[in-house]
Every structure is written in C-alpha cells, then in structure tokens.
Amino acid sequence: MKKIFYFLLLFCTTIIAVSCKKDPLDIPLGTIKVDIGGAEYKFNVQAKASRPSVSGGYGIEIHGLYKTTSTTDFNFSIVSPNPITPGTYTENMSGNPLITVRHCTEVLFPCVVQANTYGSSANPVSITIKEISGSSVKGTFKGELQVSSGSKEVLTDGVFYVSF
After folding, report:
1. DSSP string of 93-161?
2. Residue 29 phi, psi (nearest 5)
3. End-to-end C-alpha distance for the chain, whole angstroms
4. Is residue 78 a contact partner of residue 49, using CB atoms and an 8 Å limit?
5. How many CB atoms lie within 10 A of CB 16?
6. Does the N-terminal or the C-terminal CB of the chain have fewer CB atoms within 10 Å?
C-alpha cells in the first residue's frame, strides 16, 4: 500500500511540475531580453525607462546596453496623444501611437550596423504593456526591423521589465 501511495504522490507531483508553465514576464527588474534572428540577447546594462517630453501627448522610451564595454544597444518608444496604459501598441495601425525601435550594433565603431522599424506590413512591431506604474513598466514585444544593409532583423520573444 505504501508503494502505491508513493507512486501516486510521485506521479501527481510530476504532472503538476510539467504542467506549470513559467510566466515569460517573471524576469528581474532591469531586464530587456529578445531573440534576434533566433539568437537570444540581453540588454541589461543601464536598462531603464523614461518619459520623454512630448508636445501635446505622452511618451515612454525604454533603453538598454548589451554590455558595459560596448555601445551595442536596444531602444524602443511609444508616443501617443493619450496616456500610455496597459495594452498593445502596433506600428502601422490607424489610431495607434507612433512606435519606433532601434537596435545598434558596434563593430569597431559605435552603431555601425543599425536596424529600425520601417513599417513592415508582414510583421509589424508590436509592443504590449502588461503593467505600468510610477516606478516601473513591464511587457512584451515582437516584430521586424530593417537593417541599414537592407536585410531584415526578426524580433521574437521580447520581454522587458525596467524602472523609471
């Protein structure tokens, strides 16, 4: 009888452990993480959010560096005539705010390779704010950027959790 009990206990524990999926936003404060072309990057150095001055509207900008000894960075912003609140903001959508994303890569010199939003109709940049307060902002993002060389850079599984 004890063997059956332990077997059932082990079986139930295994099922519960396997079925529990980790929340992708369960990340440390000061994190910007994204897959670029299938490779994971973290822009956790000086990762912060700010509220830039916007004439007649509201803005939020999020920025982080790849490492302390490099100018490789990731930057995105939302500018809107309405307050920035939880929700999804997508480039190219009528009535939506202005969405910009910039990813600069240092190759001997700062920002030699630059990728930017360009109005992709197939894979537009989408930023979802899950939580925003006076002290931090948390969310996800994805989409496609155009590299200065003309090629595309696909962003998937982007997450951020940064303080103001």
Report:
1. -TT--EEEEEEEEEESEEEEEEEE----SSS--EEEEEEE-SSEEEEEEEEEEEETTS-EEEEEEEEEE
2. -60, 140
3. 58
4. no
5. 9
6. N
pLDDT, tens digit (0-9, with 9 covering 90-100), for 91-133: 977 766 799 999 988 877 777 888 989 989 999 999 999 999 9
pTM of the model: 0.80
Tokens of 34: 């994204």
Place of tokens 């000894």: 69
Rounded distance between C-alpha atoms, residue 75 and residue 63, angstroms: 4
Angle at CA 54, nearest 5°, toward 53 and 55?
A: 120
